[in-house]
Amino acid sequence: MTSTKKTAPKTAQNSATAYEKLVSAVPHWGLGTLSPDGDMASFARFLMRVIDRGILSSCLPTHKIERKDAQTPENWPYGSFVLVASDGGGQPLCLLSDLAEHSQALSQRPEVSLTFAGNHALAAPMAGPRVTVLGRMTAVTDPVALEAGRKRYQNRHPSTALFADFADFRLYRLEILRGHLIAGFGQARWLSPDKLCAPMPEKGAWAEEEAVLLQEIEALYGPALYDSLAAESPFAAQIRAALAPETPWRLTGVDCEGLDVRAGGQTARLSFLRPARTRQDLAQNLSALCSKKEIFPEDEQDSDG
To answer: Among 246, 276, 285, 281, which residue's Cα sits nearest to residue 263?
Structure first.
């Protein structure tokens, strides 16, 4: 009882601050109002989670360049538009066709950069935040990781169900080696991979049950989760008003740092107040987000014991 009284006011206050500064909808609404709040690393991870598309720059082989001369380099930078999801640890995932130029480039050199831009529809686009990560992108071959990654990707991008199972499509994972965040004018920083990768839950805690967890959270929250999102983010409310009534918000992913949300072609994110490394942590974060005392009653009972 004593600990509850001490933490409840602080949680409510922190929740409002987290929403005000970190919850917004992208790519077309309001991302320029976000504040890194001094924590550049968490802000970069937020951008990589909430933005669902980017520019993938790979090394195009010289034979792809029609006009060659002595000045033509061995590899040529090639940028292409891609849809992006992420694995549980925040490493970017892309579903690419073997027929695409970037896939053929990756077969020769895996070094790439991937840019996430949160400056759409801003009057001053250069003031908007963006982050570019550098690393090596390779096809996911581990059966367990491949299955989990495909599920996350298709839940994030339901439109890809039309072609995701085609024989020429492969799931790629970008191993981040470094990242560069520009949070606005005069706010730029290079970040190491350990700062860009999210914490992982304890082994066997809850990550393996993501699909089940999403269904459970949806059922237990009802409309309260999305009402909370709309109340705390005016941009989410604008999107909701612009969408057809039959296009509801839905959860597309859960990780140690928050929830990914989608409505039609629009995305948003609900950030947790602290990393959810255990199921009890997850329940406490969900409770704070939705202002409910008990989200997973069985966990509350277990923790009391």
So the answer is: 246
| More confident: 30 or 84 | 84
Examine the domain organization and report whether 127 and 58 are in the same domain.
Answer: yes
Cα 260 to Cα 286: distance, rounded to the nearest angstrom:
13
- The pLDDT score that the predictor gives to residue 23 is 34
Enclosing domain of residue 248: 1-26+199-305
Evaluate whether residue 31 is within a structural domain.
no
| Residue 142 shares a structural domain with residue 214 | no
Longest CA span, the chain: 76
Q: How many domains does the chain have?
A: 2
> Rounded to an integer, what distance in angstroms lies between the CA atom of residue 253 and that of residue 217?
11
Q: pLDDT tens-digit profile of 123-143?
A: 778 878 899 999 999 999 999
Q: How far apart are the first and last CA of the chain?
A: 14
Among 78, 42, 85, 39, which Cα is nearest to 61's? 78
Q: What is the pLDDT of residue 305?
A: 39
Collect contacts of 11-16 with beta carbons under 8 A, ≥24 apart.
11/273, 11/288, 12/288, 12/291, 14/273, 14/288, 15/273, 15/288, 15/289, 16/232
Tokens, residue 72: 């033509």
Chain centroid offset of residue 162 CA: 22
Peptide bond into 27 cis (omega under 30): yes
Q: Is 229 exposed, middle or buried (0-12, 13-18, 19+ CB in 10 A)?
A: buried
What CATH number is given to the structural domain containing 140?
2.30.110.10
72 bridge partner residues: none
